[in-house]
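From the thread on structure requests for the teaching lab: each student submitted one protein with a one-line request. Submission from student K.M.:

"Model Thioredoxin domain-containing protein from Microscilla marina ATCC 23134, C-alpha cells only."
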Amino acid sequence: MVVAVSFSAKAQKTTKGLPNVTIKTLDGNSLSTQALALKGHFTVVSFWATWCKPCIQELSAIHDVYPDWQEDMKVKLIAISVDDARSRARAKSLVKGKRWEFETYIDENGDLKRAMNVLNVPHTFILNKDGEIVWQHTSYKPGDEEKYYDVLKKLNTKK
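Reply posted by the TA:
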C-alpha cells in the first residue's frame, strides 16, 4: 500500500508536462523531450501514426490553419508518431509528402506514449506557456481543430 501511494505521487508529478524520455527525429537521431523548448508559448502535442487515417486528417487540418495559430498566439505544434523503427521511413516520407511544416518526431519504443498514458491515436494535448498539460482530447472528427483553437484562445486571454 505504501508503494502504491509513492507511485501515485510520482505519477501526478510527471503529468504536469511532458515526461523526460528519449524520442527520435525523423532521421533517427535521439532527442530528449526536455530539449523541445516548450516554455514561453502554447504547445499542441499530437500523437499519431502513419496507418491512422483520422490522425492524418487531424494533422492536415491543423497544418492548414497552423500559420494563423502561430501568428495569433505563437503556437508550437509537435507531432509524435507512434510508429516503430521499421516504419520510420514511411513516417518521414508521409511528412515530406504532406509538406507538414511543424516539428515531427518518432516515439518508436513507445516510452513517451506510455508515460503520457496514450492508449489510442490520435491523442492531442495542449500545454500552457509554462509547459504544463492543461487539456487533452482523443480521436478526431473534422472541425476538432476549431475546438483546439478555442482552447488556445481561452488560454491566451488568461495570460
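TA comment: The beta strands are 22-25, 30-32, 43-48, 76-81, 103-106, 123-127, 133-138. Residues 1-15 have pLDDT under 50 and may be disordered.
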